[in-house]
């Protein structure tokens, strides 16, 4: 399994936010995006997830043993700043929606709603409307979305911002298990996320160097 980006460039409005970013991640590998506010981390993640069209370049995902690449978005979960849950629906209804809407990518199975709730430390309250929950509980259930449908690539934009330390540890454990099972993770984060072996891509923004810088 391999996720690759080749000579990616993206614009917002008239401006290039980054140019000619290339990298490849194999099964079990993670990459952290760093850089100051506005340097283009979210923009790159949205391009990788297929939510924004790059100005140039391409993103590919190849399953081990396959010759043909597929669009990375088909293999990816995207956890953005917003939780993407309906406040009027119960937690279970939201998660069942995502489970069916996303479906499982070939080669894996998503968890049941109750098992996913257990994994984020919130079993027993999935019957409540999403809107009744605290901000931290809502974020934990947004993380559970990553578990109910199997997607080998996790694209994470500040996943643990504003969460408590135990939620940080819980999410680091989820990412660790995902990588240990051969998944790939790319995250913009200021928290460690337990990704000690992760590579780092420093985003320098359109006022700095043209692309990003590998560490
Ligand atoms: N919808 C948009 N239209 C025009 N410009 C945008 C849009 N969204 C973002 N930008 C610009 O693109 C640049 C990169 O923004 P982006 O959100 O990718 O940065 P970031 O590194 O994720 O920032 P932060 O750390 O603050 O989340 C910024 O200069 C921002 O103003």
UniProtKB/TrEMBL annotation:
Single GO MF descriptor: ATP hydrolysis activity
Domain of life: Bacteria
Record-listed E.C. numbers: 3.6.3.41
UniProt enzyme class: hydrolase
SUPFAM superfamilies in the cross-refs: P-loop containing nucleoside triphosphate hydrolases
Pfam families noted in UniProt: ABC_tran
Domain ABC transporter: residue ranges: 3-215
Transmembrane intervals: none
InterPro entries: AAA+_ATPase, ABC_transporter-like_ATP-bd, ABC_transporter-like_CS, ABC_transptr_haem_export_CcmA, P-loop_NTPase
Alphabetical keyword list: ATP-binding, Cytochrome c-type biogenesis, Hydrolase, Membrane, Nucleotide-binding, Translocase, Transport
Example of a GO biological process term: cytochrome complex assembly
Membership in a protein family: Belongs to the ABC transporter superfamily.
PANTHER family listed in its UniProt record: ABC TRANSPORTER I FAMILY MEMBER 1
Protein name: Heme ABC exporter ATP-binding protein CcmA
Lineage: Bacteria, Pseudomonadati, Pseudomonadota, Alphaproteobacteria, Hyphomicrobiales
Gene (UniProt): ccmA
